[in-house]
Amino acid sequence: MGEAFIRFENVEKIYGSGEGAVRALHDASFTIGKGEICVIVGPSGAGKTTLLNILGGMDTLTSGRVFLNDREVSAFDRRQLADYRRRDIGFVFQFYNLIPNLTALENVELASQIVRDSLPAPQVLTDVGLGERMRNFPAQLSGGEQQRVAIARALAKKPSLLLCDEPTGALDYATGKQILALLQDQSRKNGMTVVIITHNSALTAMADRVIGIRNGTVAYARLNEHVTPVEEIEW
Ligand SMILES: Nc1ncnc2c1ncn2[C@@H]1O[C@H](COP(=O)(O)OP(=O)(O)O)[C@@H](O)[C@H]1O
Ligand SMILES: [Mg+2]
């Protein structure tokens, strides 16, 4: 686990203004090392999605600083943020966000329109276990399979950072486990940094690093001494 790859310094995020203002994050500081699997855990409304959206360049902060690999993301202008989202970040969401009228293959091929040196879509789909389902449309796939397509689409860009917001939130227990195992496996194989948001504290066992979020700030951050393969975690 190397030096800090991601660094949050006293990040504050206030939505709205005046009487309607909501302070979603305050004094949020932490680091994440390159190649780590980091699980961010906390109750609903704690500020997890806000934090991930700021890290992924989908939202801007009110004060504080965010760095990725010594580039200050919080100082990027709109154009730089767009490049950053396209080139550096892979996103995986709870509800997959696939294009319904494109096949699995075509959804993953979208990556080649975003970055120049994307991985071949058939290869990545095979890698996530969907070699036989490439010609299917999202509606012809199960929830777990659709999430695999979404992961393949993110991986095809070869992102330096994969961000997953409640990736198993819409899946049953066994399927959710398979998806988390896939993420753990991909991180290990490719040395890819993966940040996973969850409200399920049992999942912290799979992480190299755990960051607990409560009431808009970091309640604790720790390294896991005994990382557990997802297959062995029960919840
Ligand atoms: N776009 C927004 N406008 C106003 N308030 C928001 C917005 N997004 C999130 N919030 C508020 O910020 C707080 C943190 O939300 P969020 O980051 O989504 O938490 P979590 O992902 O941990 O459930 C909540 O009080 C939420 O209502
Ligand atoms: Mg959320």
From TrEMBL:
It holds the Pfam family ABC_tran. InterPro entries: AAA+_ATPase (IPR003593), ABC_transporter-like_ATP-bd (IPR003439), ABC_transporter-like_CS (IPR017871), ABC_transpr_LolD-like (IPR015854), MacB-like_ATP-bd (IPR017911), P-loop_NTPase (IPR027417). The lineage of its organism: Bacteria, Bacillati, Bacillota, Clostridia, Eubacteriales. The keyword Signal does not apply. The keyword Transport applies. Keywords: ATP-binding, Nucleotide-binding, Transport. Residues 6-233 form the ABC transporter domain. This is ABC transporter ATP-binding protein. GO terms for molecular function: ATP binding. Signal peptide: none annotated. PROSITE patterns: ABC_TRANSPORTER_1, ABC_TRANSPORTER_2.
